[in-house]
RNA sequence: GGAGGGGUGGCAGAGCGGCUGAAUGCGCCAGUCUUGAAAACUGGAGUGGGUUCACGCCCACCGCGGGUUCGAAUCCCGCCCCCUCCGCCA
């Protein structure tokens, strides 16, 4: 959610910022200003009446205590009460409409967010193979069981079996240990969340078609632990000295993938359920740009140590999503597909989520202010397994895995299955 | 799933429907005292909104949302959460 005070004090800046995104009605800011003026007028009218009502009520009490007859005063107060109720309802309604409109506006892009997707750098050696590369599904064989997954739950579900399970657990353990050294507290969060959490993170209203909903319990399956981690400090005022607060969430993630029928149907690149280690930071507003670079650096560190060739993309403003002011994707080279594909993503959501979730901080003196939040993928397990198998493959169909994971229980090689 | 109890400021804990944004204690901040500290004493201290050049003034908030009333922390209804007992359960 945008800062209403900013919209009021510098509407041109907000208009220009939002105009960079293709998805905002140019008249939205002016409509909002009109609603704001209406709300303030209605509020003042209601509060003036209310002040008089309280005054009158005190006079009635005083009269009764003095043994006087307050009948006439009460009769007058009764009429005033009706008026107060009406005006208060009008003010509340104006307030609701203002908030509803405000909640529809996406975040203002950072000036350094790219106009269109822009590759910043390519890192690592794209393997030159003297044989025709196989994709992860061929390499994994029965260890990725799509047929039975589909039989159980439908398309885009898979069983992960055998060695790959230890590979996943090693990957997760290795990542969480690394993040702990970087100052992130490991967290296993709930994945079933209330609507407020999705609203607070900006996924609602924006991506409802992507989210599993359990109407019987009014709960949603989170598509990322970002949702739960962002809500960790909802409604809190944090001491400035305790910032930044960094969390590493590990959880399954659920996505409906509605509207992607026919896309990425082979293997586990795009599935309804996958596990992910997610970084999330609450920081001082002055620090969020630096924190964003920091999260990107950690993502790159992980890819580099896993010897996955990748490139970094500064995501164009049109693809930012509602809450992000700026976003980097790391795209891994996948020999099986012969192209770079998104493996991780990190966003600076500035104060957009924090304002919705009411996460604030306070210096030793002074008023509370809204924090900035950022998120970034440390390891999306499924896609990382794809990158590891396809980049580690040998001519005989075996896969050599990164040595760093062996210490955490990962197999050093995956042997071909028949 | 069944039966009961409870949600008040950082914490603990009062609060006959009428100056109660809220007693009291602890904790916190500042000051006095002290060489310094402790103790003692004095004072201060919530969040949001509106208005004002400003001092200030006004409104809302006692889990959340409605209702009753001239007037609600206090009465009524719904929801959420926590606790105890029984049942069930990884």
UniProtKB/TrEMBL annotation:
Biological classification of the source: Bacteria, Bacillati, Actinomycetota, Thermoleophilia, Solirubrobacterales
Name of the protein this chain belongs to: Serine--tRNA ligase
Gene Ontology CC terms: cytoplasm
Enzyme kind, highest EC tier: ligase
Assigned EC number: 6.1.1.11
Annotated site residues (Important for serine binding) in this chain: 377
Source organism (scientific name): uncultured Solirubrobacteraceae bacterium
Keywords: Aminoacyl-tRNA synthetase, ATP-binding, Ligase, Nucleotide-binding, Protein biosynthesis
GO biological process: seryl-tRNA aminoacylation
Binding site for L-serine: 224, 255, 278, 375
Residues at which ATP binds: 255-257, 271-274, 342-345
MF (Gene Ontology): ATP binding; serine-tRNA ligase activity
Segments forming domain Aminoacyl-transfer RNA synthetases class-II family profile: 177-402
Pfam families: Seryl_tRNA_N (PF02403), tRNA-synt_2b (PF00587)
């Amino acid at each position: 959610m945008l800062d209403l005070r900013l919209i009021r004090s510098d509407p041109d800046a907000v208009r220009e910022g939002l105009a960079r995104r293709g998805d905002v009605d140019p008249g939205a800011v002016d409509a909002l200003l009109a609603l704001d003026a209406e709300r303030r007028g209605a509020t003042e009218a209601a509060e003036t009446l209310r002040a008089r009502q309280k005054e009158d009520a005190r006079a009635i009490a005083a009269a009764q205590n003095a043994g006087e007859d307050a009948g006439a005063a009460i009769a007058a107060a009764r009429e005033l009460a009706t008026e107060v109720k009406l005006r208060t309802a009008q003010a509340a309604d104006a307030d609701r409409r203002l908030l509803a409109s405000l909640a529809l506006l996406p975040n203002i892009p950072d000036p350094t967010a790219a106009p269109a997707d822009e590759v910043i750098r390519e890192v690592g050696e794209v393997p030159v193979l003297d044989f025709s590369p196989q994709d992860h599904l061929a390499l994994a064989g029965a260890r990725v069981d799509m047929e039975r997954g589909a039989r159980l739950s439908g398309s885009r579900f898979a069983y992960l079996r055998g060695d790959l399970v230890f590979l996943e657990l090693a990957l997760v353990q290795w990542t969480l240990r690394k993040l702990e050294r970087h100052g992130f507290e490991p967290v296993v969060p709930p994945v079933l969340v209330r609507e407020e959490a999705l609203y607070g993170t900006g996924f609602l209203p924006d991506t409802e078609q992507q989210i599993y909903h359990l109407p019987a319990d009014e709960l949603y399956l989170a598509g990322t632990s970002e949702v739960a981690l962002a809500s960790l400090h909802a409604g809190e005022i944090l001491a400035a000295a305790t910032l930044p607060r960094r969390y590493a969430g590990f959880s399954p993630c659920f996505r409906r993938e509605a509207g992607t029928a026919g896309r990425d149907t082979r293997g586990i690149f795009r599935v309804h359920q996958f596990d992910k280690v997610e970084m999330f930071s609450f920081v001082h507003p002055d620090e969020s740009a630096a924190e964003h670079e920091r999260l990107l650096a950690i993502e790159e560190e992980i890819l580099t140590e896993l010897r996955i060739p990748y490139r970094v993309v500064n995501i164009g403003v049109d693809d930012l999503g509602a809450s992000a002011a700026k976003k980097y994707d790391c795209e891994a080279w996948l020999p099986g597909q012969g192209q770079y594909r998104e493996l991780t993503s990190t966003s600076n959501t500035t104060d957009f989520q924090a304002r919705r979730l009411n996460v604030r901080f306070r210096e030793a003196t002074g008023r509370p202010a809204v924090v900035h939040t950022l998120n970034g993928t440390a390891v999306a397990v499924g896609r990382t397994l794809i990158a590891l198998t396809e980049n580690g493959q040998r001519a005989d169909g075996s896969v050599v895995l990164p040595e760093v994971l062996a210490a955490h229980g990962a197999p050093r090689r995956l042997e071909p299955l028949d």
